[in-house]
Amino acid sequence: MAIRRLLKGHHYRKAADIGGGFGRLCLLLRTFADEVTLAEPAASQLEAAKRVLAGTDIKQVQMQADDLKFADGELDLVTMVRVMHHIPEPTAEFAEISRVLAPGGTAIIEVANYGHFKNRRRHKKEGIPLPTEPVDIRQTKADEPDAIAFVNHNIDTVVGQLAAAGLTLESKLSVSNLRSQTLKKALPKSVMLAAERITQKRLAKSNFGPSIFLKLRKA
Fold it and tell me: Which residues contact 206 (CB under 8 A, 6 or more apart)?
């Protein structure tokens, strides 16, 4: 829903979904772009993508977000969703996204938001300011010493890092605002989706939800 709203009325020549897993979002992006590439570091996800994307013209390339295999200015649209959870220090990734985007190109980046309503309320009650640095939210000890990071971010800090990379914030949406198992059991799916649609834009200014979608433009 968020991606459709942010891209509505636009069409792009070349797009890539960074860290796109098995390619689910690539199918959506293909309706907004002439050419789409799934850029995914995990071989297992790319193997799964062969089945999901079978019969499409979506490209599948193994690459890391901090080392994108695209030429300077090659892309008009880049998306990176459900990836920032695993990047405590995204400066290199943002620099790469900016590099591969053409001037005026669009990036949509979803950020796991530490400063959502519940955390803000708790910090205020305890008299502790929200951290500006990423916060490790892993609830159990990692099995391996080199386990993938699992963090939430301060949105203002991330927007500043993006600006430093040459990506200017155009708009944002607050997503998963009613993420409650109780509500999901009590209300029909259609009602939950309608409430989500109404609140995404209205609650974006306060970074209310646990997931914030940022729409950015390269200068």
Answer: 117, 174
> Nearest 5°: phi and psi at 62?
-80, 125
pTM score, whole prediction: 0.94
Tokens for 141, please give them. 């000890």
> What is the extent of the structural domain holding 53?
2-218
- Tally the domains of the chain: 1
User: pLDDT tens digits for 87-103?
Assistant: 999 999 999 999 999 99
What CATH number does residue 143 fall under? 3.40.50.150
Nearest Cα to Cα of residue 70 among 37, 31, 35: 37
**What is the rounded CA–CA span in Å between residue 168 and residue 186?**
40
Lookup: tokens for 186: 């009590």
Contact status, residue 110 vs residue 78, Cβ threshold 8 Å? no
Q: CA-CA distance, 126 to 174, in Å (whole number)?
A: 25
Residues in the chain: 219
Over residues 9-35, the pLDDT tens digits come to: 999 999 999 999 999 999 999 999 999
